[in-house]
Design goal:
Distance between the termini: 60 Å
Number of strands: 10
Strand content: 15-25%
Shape: globular
Oligomer: single chain
Structural class: alpha+beta
Largest sheet: 4 strands, mixed
Length: about 280
């Protein structure tokens, strides 16, 4: 019997043979007997410890034993927060699948969400090319920032330079999510009195038939760029039109594009047939 110790993980008891004693009734002849099942299995935990230690040894920790640790949303790609990790923090994250950091001010480990319950559920961990910084790629349970913001990055330096007298907060968004943010604002504006002609986005949000007809129209035009071997720029343009109109539909339904990406990620481990069979029956509200 061996005891394998993972840094930050505690001790694990490992045996090369696991014996299980079961007791069951044989109803056919009313006999009661014990079955001893001894299952051979390799020392997987010891091998795993060796692999983890090899990875931990490969990280270029600084003179204080730390490395930058960045948490990134696995679906949206948004940078959620940045902290520091030491060897034990990284080992704990590997074991718990919860983003764990090292607090320099308190000199202790801390798991994001241990107080707020807004954990970051880690799906994968990456090291950079120099192996001195870490990315926790995961899904947050709620807002990451202690201010209640979705991420800790909402102060634009360019905005501050252009309008230093105005304090603004906006999340650091990539192109697709900037579009989604703009569409959401257009929907919010519909609740206030409108002056002049509504924008195209507002017209789509107010008219379901118009919106659906445009999605069908743009999807058909996208397909024709392939069928008629049109220029690649036409394919890109029509794809942009399709994405825009479909995102308006998501906003109209009160859904987020990140939710779509979550559904796609869940399908990675399913065949097309399995995914179709798992779908819920259509319901009309």
């Amino acid at each position: 019997m061996a005891f394998a110790h993972f840094h930050g993980l505690g001790s694990l008891q490992v045996t090369s043979r696991e014996c299980v004693f079961n007791t069951r009734n044989d109803t056919s002849n009313n006999r009661r007997y014990a079955i001893k099942a001894c299952i051979k299995k390799p020392d997987e935990n010891i091998h795993l410890e060796s692999k983890i230690n090899k990875v931990l040894d490969s990280v270029k920790w600084d003179e204080k034993g730390l490395a930058v640790a960045i948490a990134q949303n696995v679906d949206s790609g948004a940078i959620l927060m940045q902290g520091f990790a030491n060897r034990d923090a990284l080992a704990t994250t590997i074991a718990s699948k919860k983003a764990t950091f090292y607090s320099r001010s308190r000199s202790t480990l801390w798991t994001k969400g241990e107080t707020s319950l807004n954990f970051i559920n880690v799906h994968d961990i990456f090291l950079d090319c120099d192996r001195d910084s870490i990315i926790y790629l995961g899904k947050p349970d709620g807002p990451t920032c202690h201010t209640g913001a979705e991420t800790c990055y909402y102060t634009s330096i360019f905005d501050s330079l252009n309008e230093p007298q105005v304090e603004t907060s906006k999340l650091a968004l990539t192109t697709l999510y900037s579009l989604e943010s703009t569409l959401s604002k257009r929907k919010e504006e519909l609740s206030t009195p409108q002056q002049g002609k509504p924008s195209w986005t507002k017209r789509l949000l107010l008219d379901d038939k118009l919106l659906c007809s445009k999605i069908r129209e743009e999807a058909d035009e996208l397909c024709r760029t392939l069928e008629e071997n049109e220029d690649e720029s036409r394919t890109l343009s029509e794809m942009a039109d399709v994405l825009y109109h479909e995102m308006v539909l998501l906003i109209r339904r009160g859904l987020k594009f990140e939710d779509v990406l979550h559904v796609l990620r869940c399908r990675f481990t399913q065949s097309g047939i399995e995914e179709k069979n798992s779908r819920k029956a259509k319901t009309v509200k």
